[in-house]
Amino acid sequence: MTRSPTTRLLHETVQLLLGLIAVALLTALCFWLDFRAVSAAFTYLILIVLLSLTGGLLAPVVLSFVAAGCLAYFFSPPIFDFRMNYPEDIIATATFLITSLTVGCLVRRMQAGKDELANVLHAIPALVWSTAPDGSADFSNQRFRDYTGFSSEQLRGRGWPDALHPEDRKVEELCAALAAGEPFENEVRIRSANGEHRWFVLRMTPLRNEQGTIVKWYGAASDVEERRRAVEALRDSEERWHAVFEHNPTMYFIVDEAGTVLSVNPFGAEQLGCSVNELVGRSVLNVFHETDRAAIQRNAASCLEQLGQSMSWEARKVRKDGTVLWVRETGKAMLMKERPVILIVCEDITERKRLETHLAEAQRISHTGSFAYDVAGRRLIYSSEEHHRLFGFDPAAGMPAPKDWALRIHPDDRERAVQTMEQRLRERTDYEVDFRIVLPDGTLKYIHSISHAVLSPSGDLVEIVGTSTDVTDRRRAEYLTQQVFERSPDLVGILGRDYRYRRANPMYETFWGIAPEKVVGMHIRDVIGEERFDRFAKPNLDRCFAGEEASYEGWFNGPGGRKYWFVTYSPLRLESERVEAVLIIARDLTERMLASEKLRDARMQLAHANRVATVGELAASIAHEVNQPIGALVTNAHAGLRMLSAEPPDLNQAHEALGDIIKDGRRVSEVIDRIRALVKKEPPQAVRVDVNEAIVGSIALARAEILKSGVSLETQLMKDLPPILGDRVQFQQVVMNLVMNAIEAMSAVDEGTRELQIVTDQEGEDQIFVTVRDSGPTLNPESLDRFFEVFYSTKSHGMGIGLSICRSIIEAHEGRIWATANVPRGATLHITLPAAVVGNPPVHAQDV
Question: What is d(CA 606, CA 618) in angstroms, rounded to the nearest whole number?
Answer without folding.
Answer: 18
